[in-house]
Amino acid sequence: MKRKIIFYILIIAVLAVAIYFLISYFSEAKGEKQLTRQMTLSDTFPSNIKPYVDELKKQYPNWEFKALYTNLDWNYVINKENVFGKNLVPKSYSDSWKNTTPGQYNVEVDSGWVDSSRAAVEFAMDPRNFINYVRVFQFEELSYNSQTNTLASVEKILYGTEFYNRIVEYKTASGSNIVTDKKYSELILSAAKTSLVSSFHLASRIKQEVGPFLSHSSISGTVGGFEGLYNFYNIGATSSSEPMGAIKNGLQYAKDGKGASSATKEKYLIPWNTKERAITGGAKFIGSSYINLGQNSIYLQKFHVYDNQSGELFWHQYMTNVLAPYSESKLIYNGYANSNLLSTPMSFVIPIYNNMPELPCTSPAISSSDFSTDNTKVYANVETTLNVRTGPSTSYEVLTSLSSGTQMTRIAKGKQKRGIMG
User: Fold this and answer.
1) CA–CA separation, 384 and 380 (whole Å)
2) How would you label 40-52 residue by residue, b for 16+ Cβ within 10 Å and e otherwise?
């Protein structure tokens, strides 16, 4: 009898623990959905971000900025993103960028790519690091704009690549070479009009995903088993440790949509067996699968902290490169700058999180041991103006310019390395 009582007590205890975890799980899921629905857009920015926005407004008065209050806690967001395989960096990067956990360190999630460090995720997700005239384009709203999206401007984005001013050629599954009467810029602009996605975004995304060369395996049409297939945006190119695994996954999507329905394949022009179908169909995928769902910036496509579906977050992410928004933003900026379009009206949406660190998260490339806390008053000792940049050299973007004699508080000071006689 005593054994039975103990047995029943154990059963009740196990059930109680199980019920507790089930309630916790569903409470968290419900809470996340409620947080999603409570997100709001505002013209008012918090004090830790407003100075960055105000400075950009001075430089570009035609630019419009909105704050996207996610109502998500900063540490909660980082914990959700800092999951093995969700954010990658090149294996060639220093260890400060990489996950150094035993058993996960330097494990190739994709060929040449490894899991990123928590510090890398924090740096890439902190919007304060990128509210300058170049990197802010990762927050640009990406809808098609007939005033700025022109053939000439697309060509300027493509300048320096093999797509520039180039007639489109492609190979069929049988190996025949087809020469069309259209240029890549024409296909991209036409795809932008059809998908209602910015042609700047499409051109920049192609450069980001396949690089400057037409020989890239995703668009060569010559990969064994996938001859005559093309994927300019690497859609469906999920990470794989198999040689060329990600590329083959992307080409499988180009072939059959990875088991997609007939309606879906018709919608996205699958199979992508011509370059025009691939560029246009992929643009339609990006528009309907991301931009029209509320993930209408490069940042929101990479970091799924908002959508208009009021569902679970952090899973619908277009790319795994943790610095993809950082890289693509400069491509877009260069396109606008080369086209003399920076003074035109543009709209940017900056995500805001609760309980963010007081200071912006530093780049993993910057070691805290190279600096010491200072907090002293200093003055701009220059003849005209002093440029305050995002990093410690003139290759970094300018945040603001200070006139001679302006007083500042220096929060940290670089440690000078002594010479051999020091």
Assistant:
1) 9
2) eeeeebeeebeeb
pLDDT at position 21 is 42
Residue where the block lists tokens 């329905």 = 261
CB distance 371 to 89 below 8 Å:
no
Which domain covers residue 377, as residue numbers?
368-414
68 in any annotated domain = no
The confidence score (pLDDT) of residue 399 equals 58
User: How far is Cα 201 from Cα 209, in angstroms, rounded to an integer?
Assistant: 12
**pLDDT number for residue 421:** 33
Query: Which stretches of the chain score pLDDT less than 50?
Result: 7-8, 14, 16-37, 418-422
Per DSSP, the residues of 67-106 read EEEEEEEHHHHHHHH-STTTSEEETTS-GGGB---TTTTT
Among the residues of 159-222, which ranges form H helices? Answer: 184-195, 199-210, 217-220
Q: Tell me, yes or no, whether 146 lies in a domain.
A: yes
- Total domains present in the chain: 2
Distance CA(163)–CA(170), nearest Å, equals: 13
Domain end residue (candidates: 354, 384, 404): 354
Tell me, yes or no, whether 324 and 384 share the same domain. no
Rg (CA), the chain: 25
Beta-bridge partners for 303: none
Q: Are residues 94 and 156 in the same domain?
A: yes
What's the CA dihedral at 186, 188, 189, 194 to 10 degrees? 120
409, part of any domain: yes
Tell me phi and psi for residue 378, to 5 degrees: -130, 165
